[in-house]
Design brief:
It contains no helices and 15 strands. By secondary structure, it is mainly β. This is VCBS repeat-containing protein.
Length: about 220
């Protein structure tokens, strides 16, 4: 039986996407073998079958590509715009944004002086790696960083009173020596769509106030 492979939305046979045919189809990593200079890899169980897939992010012109290679050698990929060149923040992160056991992939789309911008992808059978969007279908981005006068971050948590499991924080210092003003927004993650579930606006709170706290590491799979 010939297995089908989804490449950029088109189906191809494994022979057309065999490892090593071109730089856009990374060969499976072997223990002790470093990834190419313009790529970074991690393992994740994105299809929930109990076995890991090889996840790779690599450069392709002014875009980056996130891909997954499965145990049967089938392969999917999805390209996304990025203004971060080279290996800076190239490594993909494995996350469980919905705290439901589904593993999503978090990738860097932009870097600023003190802030990193991220996007998330989820695996959908028959479609491949699909970018997580808002309820209007626009690509959803989130951030981590800040500086002396601002703070942005995100966190994951078990469902609250509703079904929200993902939270973002944005805060700005109103003046030297003053507290932070900002908003904390809660979201539910429904497959490839993120849905707002409420927000808390805060004013002049100290840096260690609970409403300001967010830990991206909390989004790691359990």
């Amino acid at each position: 039986m010939t297995a089908a492979v989804l490449l950029g939305g088109a189906l191809a046979t494994p022979g057309a996407a065999a490892a090593g045919d071109d730089r856009d189809t990374p060969a499976p990593a072997t223990p002790g073998t470093a990834a190419p200079a313009d790529s970074a890899s991690v393992q994740a169980d994105i299809d929930g079958d109990g076995g890991p897939e090889l996840i790779t992010v690599r450069e392709r012109g002014d875009h980056r590509v996130v891909s997954a290679r499965f145990a049967d050698h089938s392969y999917v990929e999805s390209a996304f715009p990025s203004d971060t060149a080279g290996r800076l923040h190239l490594d993909p992160r494995v996350a469980d944004l919905g705290r439901d056991g589904t593993q999503e992939l978090v990738v860097t789309t932009a870097t600023g002086a003190n802030t990193v911008t991220f996007a998330a992808f989820t695996y959908v059978p028959g479609q491949g790696l699909v970018r997580v969007t808002d309820t209007g279908g626009e690509p959803f981005t989130f951030h981590d960083g800040g500086g002396a006068t601002s703070l942005v971050s995100y966190a994951c948590h078990e469902p609250d009173a509703g079904d929200a499991t993902f939270t973002t924080v944005r805060a700005q210092r109103t003046g030297e020596g003053e507290g932070l003003d900002g908003v904390r927004t809660r979201y539910a993650v429904h497959h490839d769509t993120i849905v707002p579930r409420g927000r808390t606006v805060f004013h002049d709170v100290p840096d260690d106030a609970r409403v300001v706290q967010a830990d991206p590491d909390s989004c790691a799979p359990a």
